[in-house]
Write a sequence for this structure.
């Protein structure tokens, strides 16, 4: 089953996309790991300095997330399933961005997990700049895979 691909964004300002459903704004280059993946797998992904948090999924179901800090002193062969915690707020893909912003905590949260409104499956992340005024990724991250080198990851 092919997933629906969001169109390229011409304007990444939150104010310009407030009425857009968050499902259309998920980052196309976002990464996830599975519950059976290991701390070693996560550390390899965290080698990329732009990765701050990794959503952990069981099949298509979001179970939580890990950060660099949560795995620092954990053995490399430990699976991520038991380490994932509900670090990130969630919203359904059909919720407009302006409404979904209310799910972010007052502590400066900039990542929002997007779930399918019908079956609750993981759809992706919406990432915001630290001041929450723009989507924190370049427009090509939201592009159709046919126009993005290498497609979606």
């Amino acid at each position: 089953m092919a997933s629906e691909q969001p169109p390229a964004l011409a304007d990444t300002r939150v104010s310009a996309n407030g009425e857009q459903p968050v499902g259309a704004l998920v980052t196309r280059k976002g990464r996830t790991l599975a519950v059976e993946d290991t701390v070693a797998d996560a550390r390899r992904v965290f080698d990329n300095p732009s990765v701050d948090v990794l959503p952990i999924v069981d099949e298509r179901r979001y179970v939580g997330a890990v950060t660099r800090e949560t795995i620092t002193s954990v053995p490399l062969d430990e699976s991520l399933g038991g380490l994932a915690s509900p670090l990130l707020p969630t919203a359904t893909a059909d919720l407009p961005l302006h409404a979904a912003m209310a799910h972010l905590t007052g502590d400066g949260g900039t990542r929002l997990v997007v779930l399918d409104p019908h079956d609750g499956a993981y759809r992706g992340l919406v990432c915001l700049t630290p001041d929450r005024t723009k989507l924190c990724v370049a427009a090509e991250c939201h592009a159709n895979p046919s126009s993005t080198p290498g497609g979606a990851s």
